Every structure is written in structure tokens, then in C-alpha cells.
Amino acid sequence: MSQLSPLERRSALTLALVISLRLFGLFLILPVFSVYARAMPDATPFRVGLALGVYGIGQMLLQVPLGMLSDRIGRKPAITLGLVVFALGGAVAATSHTLMGIVVGRALQGMGAVAGAGTALAADLTADANRSKVMGIIGVSIGLSFLLALILGPPLEAVAGLGGLFGLTSLLALGAMGLLWWLVPTPARAERPATGSLRDILAMLGDRSMLVLNGSVFFLHALLTAIFVGLPILLTDSFEVPVARHWTLYLPVMVIAALVMGAFMPRMRDTARSARLIVGCVVALGLAMGGMALATTHEWLLGLAAAVFFSAFNLLEAALPSQVSRIAPPHLRGAAMGAYSTSQFFGAFVGGAVGGLALGELGLHGVFGCAATLTLAWLPLVLWNARRPYGIARA
Fold it and tell me: What is the mean pLDDT of residues 167-174?
């Protein structure tokens, strides 16, 4: 794989900083929200779940429109608009004294759906041969922000309270907006021709390759959300690890996943190799789910299964958006990445619902068992597309 140019290196590092800074604010809420939200005066279990999940609804509905908008007005203006809305939602949640007020704030945060436009900007600034490497850098930065949030969320909440954490998400979004304009390169206007018609967009999204890639990210994030329904409970109840020490599993696992990504990145040089790698990752994810289901008394098995899961997850997080950005026409790239992000957040919503139902009806074994069955539905999809290279069919 060719080396990154100075422009690509700068683009990758600065965009990774912008994206991970915003997501770090989101992740900070996760390890503490459900515990403290139950004490609010209007709290019910349904409202606690609604406050967590309503963010994904806004993301699902607005990724494509904001992606299309970025094709018309430019990536940076569209991303800025999304970050402003996101910061406003954080402020509403921070100043709310009821759970329903937080629901409104979280809904506004979800409307700042900039993931598709941000990934399209990364694709605009990189060559095809280096796109997987750039996506990998961004993916690693997101993983690091997630890990840091798991470690820092509880102590920061102890200092600033839940409202303070929401306020911090707004400040981080505003900081990301400043970095976007000061540090991230701006693509040449010639690289963003006028957007295509609605017919062109629908034809692109209905293509076999795009359906497979969007279906794959749906399953991938359904698995991720489902295991986080059961994994914290497994660590706390079966292995008696306090929440404040869950990082002792996540830290070594993420280090291993980063090393695996570095070893396998050269195999993403072309679409055919990436397609075969995706098949292998789906199989690995299924095996990891099975390992977690059996790991209720074997700590070493849980560590191994988690390392396999996050290694495969990180590879797919780099490979899938890279394939989408390669096969989408440049003037439709924002719409394509918006649809991709929509599928991602829909998968997260479905995975949370499936994981919650499985936990209530089947217990911890059922959470991981149901997640494993999702890979059985996913595998035929990627095998179908692995026999020939990805590409938009043309008349």
C-alpha cells in the first residue's frame, strides 16, 4: 500500500481528532446515565431507554439529507450545521431537570447527524489506494475515544454531575467545529461536482453492492449494541468486576485489536481482498459471540472472545466505509455515506432492542446467543458478494 501523502496524513489526523472529540462527549454518558437517570422525578424504565435510544432515531432520519446537503453546499458547512444542532441538544439536556427534558435534548443531538458528511470529507481528501488506511486511523481514534470515555465518565460525573457531562458534550462539539475549520483541509471545489438527481441516488442505493455494504454495517452495529447490553452485566455479576474497573478488560483488548488492524490493513488493497476479509470477520464475530456465551466462569475465555470480537469489529469499521466511498460516484458520495450511516444507527437501535429482550427472556446466555444468530443471517449476504468485486452496476 502506498504511503500517505502529507495532505492525506494531515487530513486523516485532523479529521480523526474532530470526529473522536465529538464522539468522546457522547460516550461519556454511557457508563453512568442509566444509573443516575432512575433518580429523576419523572423517571420510568421506558423513559430511561427512550432517552438513550432517541438519539439514534434522529441519526437514522437525517444522515441521508445532511449527506445530500453536503454534496450541494460543501462538506464543512454541512458538518458545521450538524455540530451546532448537536451542541444545542447538549445544552438543552444539561439544563433539564426532568427525564423528558433530557429526551428532547438527546433528540436534538441526534439531529446533528454529521457522520456521513464527515466520512465523505475523508474520502474527498484521500486517494482510493490509501482510503482504507485513513478510515483505519479514524476508526482507531474512535476506539480510543470510547475507551477513554469508559474510564473517565464516572469520575467526571462525580465532579460535574450528569448535567455537567451533557454540558461538556456541547463544549466538545464546539471545539470540534473550530478544529474543523482551522486544521482540516478543504477539498478543491472541482472534486465536488453538482449532486445527482433523486433517480440517480435511488439507483445507486439499490445496487447490489451498496445493499450488501449497508446491510453489513447494520448487522455490525446491531452486534455491538447487543453485546453491550450483556457484557457490562457479565463483568459485574459473573466476574465481580466493579464498573470503575471494567477498563482492565477494554484496554488490553483494544490494544490487541489495534495491532491486528495494523497487520491486516495491507490486505485491504483492493475490493476483492476486502470482500474476502469481510467474510472472515463475520465468521470471527460469530465465534466471539459463542465464546462470550460460554465465558460465564472462564475469565480467559471472555478476554479471548472480546479480543476476537473487537479485532474483527475494528477491521470492518475500516473496510466497509472505504468500500462505500470507493464505489459511490464522487457527486453522490455524501448521499452514499449518509445512507451508510443511517443503516449503522438503525442497526444500533435494533441490536439494543434485541439484546434487551433477550436479557429479559433468556438471560445473559441468550444475549450472546441471539447476537451469534445475527451472524448466521449476515454471512450469506457477504458470501453472495464475495464472488465478484464490488462496483456500481452501469448500463
Answer: 92
- Shared domain for 108 and 32, answered yes or no, is yes
Determine, yes or no, domain membership for 190: no
**pLDDT of the residue at 233:** 76
The proportion of the chain whose per-residue pLDDT surpasses 90, expressed as a percent, equals: 14
Let me know whether 217 and 349 are in one domain: yes
**Per-residue cell: 377:** 443471517
Domain count, the chain: 2
Tell me, yes or no, whether 2 lies in a domain. Answer: no
Distance CA 368, CA 342 (A): 24
242: left (phi over 0), alpha (psi -120 to 50) or beta: beta
Cell of 109: 443531538
Return the C-alpha cell found at 8.
492525506
H helix or E strand, kind and range, residue 242: none
- Number of Cβ within 10 Å of residue 273's Cβ equals 15
Which domain does 250 fall in, by range? 196-394
Say whether pLDDT at 303 is over 70.
Answer: yes
The CATH number of residue 113's host domain is 1.20.1250.20
The pLDDT value given to residue 395: 34
Same domain, yes or no: 226 and 340: yes
Residue position matching grid coordinates 446491531: 222
Contact between 8 and 126 under an 8 Å Cβ cutoff? The reply is: yes
pTM of the model: 0.75
The share of the chain scoring above pLDDT 70, in percent, equals: 86
Structural domain ending residue among the three candidates 127, 160, 184: 184
Set of cell numbers at residue 218:
447494520
100 plus 208 within the same structural domain: no
Q: E strand or H helix at 105, and its extent?
A: helix 99-111
pLDDT reported for residue 34? 63
